[in-house]
Amino acid sequence: MQVYIMRHGQAFTSGSSDALRGLTAQGKLEAHVMAQWLDNKKITIDQVIVSPFIRAQETTKELINYLGDDLLITTLDFITPSGSAEQMHDYIDGVCVTDKIQTLLIVSHMPLVSYLVAELTVDGNGPIFQTAGIAHIDYDVKRMKGHLVSLTSPSDLC
Prior knowledge:
- Helix 1 packs across helix 2 and helix 3 crosses helix 4.
- The protein has helices spanning 25-40, 54-67, 85-98, 112-120, 154-157; strands spanning 2-7, 47-50, 72-75, 103-108, 134-140, 145-152.
- A 6-stranded mixed sheet has the order 3-2-4-1-5-6.
- It contains 5 helices and 6 strands; from the N terminus they run βαβαβαβαββα.
- Strand 2, helix 2 and strand 3 form a beta-alpha-beta unit.
- By secondary structure, the protein is of the alpha/beta class.
């Protein structure tokens, strides 16, 4: 299974609550650039799992605008910035493997995205993500671990 883990685009630094901070114009552009990158690489996403926080939802909306509105999207309340990488790992190994998902995209936040890469990979290292950065993991469902293939950010593409 191919797992793509994406940090949301650049968000406003303040809001009535952390959960309600939306994307800046730069954040929308970053999400668009990464959607175009996914499309250019001919990556077909079977399912998108997204945080309920506004900036992650808006990042996903930008992806949908580019990749098409037929994506299967699931919002999970436990993939917020303080969420559990172990819980998401269990979800992947239970639900995603059972549903025979081949390509999964997760849109969430730092530090969870970094912890999730560490949790899902053999070497256990968690990279620092730039906004809208995407880590690609080649995940072995039998071993329940994978290898980090790449970490790509909008600045790598512009």
